[in-house]
Amino acid sequence: MKSYALFQQYIWLVNTIHKAERITLDEINQRWLETEMSEGVSIPRSTFNRHRDAILDMFGIIIECDKKDGFRYYIDNVDVLEEDTIQNWMLSTLSVNSILAENKGVHNRIVLEPIPSDGENLHLFIEAMKRNVRIKVVYRKYGVEEQSEMLVEPFFVKLTNKRWYGIVRKPIEDGWMFVLAFDRVLSLELTDEKFKYPKGFDPVGFFRNNYGILWVEDTPVEKVTIRAYGKQVYYLRDLPLHHSQEEVATEDDYSDFELTLRPTPDFYTPLLSRGPLIKVLSPQWLADEIKKQHLEAAKLYEE
User: Fold this and answer.
1) What residues does each domain of the chain span?
2) 118 compared with 69, residue with greater pLDDT
3) Tens digit of pLDDT for each residue in 257-292?
4) Do the domains spanning 119-206 and 222-299 agree at the CATH topology level?
5) Does this model's pTM top 0.85?
6) What is the CATH number of domain 119-206?
7) How far apart are CA 193 and CA 206, in angstroms?
8) What confidence category does residue 25 fall into, taking pLDDT thresholds of 50, 70 and 90?
9) What is 222-299's CATH number?
10) Neighbour-count burial for 213-251, b at 16+ CB within 10 Å, e otherwise
C-alpha cells in the first residue's frame, strides 16, 4: 500500500476513535466501509494492530483496548491532541488532506489559501540544524535594496501566518538571536563549521510570551488589559489573542480581557484591526500608541 494511503488510514482511525471516545473494531469497520478509502474492504484485526503501532511511533498517540468494556478501543493519552507539537501539526495537516481526499466530488467548492513552501531554503536550514553547522545567508530586509551576507547558527524554524521563519544566533560569545523570513533569503549555504546547540534550549518557550514572530529582547513582559465591545467579546472568547488571555470582567455591553505578553509592534495589528470594538485599558503607553495610530489613519481620510 502506498505511504500516502497508509497515512490517510492512520488519520481516519485517530479521528474516528477520538470522536467516538470508545468504539469496537466492528463499529470501526462499519464506519470504515462507508468511506471511499475502504474500497469495500474491512480492516483486518492484524492490520488494525499494525496501524496502532504506527500511530504510536509517528504521533505518540496511544490507542488502548478495554477488554472489560466489550473490547472497546480508546485514546489513552487524549491530552496529546491538545499539545503544540510537530506531531500534532502533522496530524492536523494530514487530517485536512484526508477530508479533502474523501470529498473529491465537491473539490471545486472547497477554497483554500496558498501556503508558501520555501522548500529549498527550509530543507537546507533543517539539514544544518541536524548537523549543527553554521550557515551563510544572503538576506534582504523589507524596504531595503541592499543585500547583507551573514554567518549564523540555525536554532529552529517557526511557521507563522503562512510564512516560514528561521531563528538564528550570531556566532560570537553571548551572540544575540534574531529572526529571518525565508522569503527574504536570497541564498543559503551550509558550512563545515560546527556549533554547540545549548542543552535544554526550549524553542516553544522562546516565543511563549510573544504574540507573533517579532523578538524584541528589550520589550518587557507586561500585563495588558483590553476592553471588547459587541461581537468582539464572542470572537475573543472563541479565538483568544494569546494563550495567557483571561476574561476578568463581564458587563452587559463589554468584557475586559487580560493578557501577559511582550506587546511588540506585531501585537498592535490585531488591536487596530478591530477598530472601535477594542480599547486598550493598560498599560497607558500601549493605549497611547494605539490611539496615535488610529488618529494617523483617520487623517488620511481628511485630505
Assistant:
1) 3-109, 119-206, 222-299
2) 69
3) 999 999 999 999 999 999 999 999 999 999 999 999
4) no
5) no
6) 2.30.30
7) 25
8) very high
9) 3.30.70
10) bebeeebeeeebbbbbeeebbeebeeeebbeebeeeeee
